[in-house]
Amino acid sequence: MTTEKILLNFDPKMKNLLPALKKISACFGYVDENAAQKVADYFFVPLSKVFETASFYDLIKTKKQPSLIIQVCSGANCAVESAYKIIREIENHLHIKAGDEFNPNVKLEIISCLGQCGSGPVMIVNGNVFTRVMASNVVGILQGYL
Known about the structure:
This protein is α+β, with helices and mostly antiparallel strands. The protein has two domains: 3-56; 68-143, Glutaredoxin (3-Layer(aba) Sandwich), CATH 3.40.30. Helix content is 42%, strand content 12%. It is built from seven helices and four strands. It has helices spanning 3-7, 17-28, 33-43, 47-56, 76-80, 83-94, 138-143, and strands at 68-73, 106-111, 123-125, 128-130. Strands 2-1-3-4 form a four-stranded mixed beta sheet, covered by helices on one side. Helix 3 (33-43) crosses helix 4. The longest helix has 12 residues, at 17-28. 22% of the residues are buried.
């Protein structure tokens, strides 16, 4: 699948800009500058508008992503239920800091509410959702991905 083929699935109307960017990001893992330029040309908008739209949404990435992406919910219920202990455990185990992009292989993100408040704390590893996570079982969860 190419960016051009993806774009052909959308009418070049502004209401389709976001769905097209989501599809491109899902297919390739991110929207690079080349793809963004093709989107801008297709929708007849400035390149800056494409990046403005893409960078606003967490689901659309504009940089190549590491092979291991860990996300921890920081919504109110998850935070009360030890989300920050989980984050510290991940940071200590992997020797990284949340939000840093220094390690090209691993990324730890603190994300907003996932709407699973009754099941928190919630952690997502490469798209796989783990609920009722405790700091004591973080290492066990991560072992399957390292």
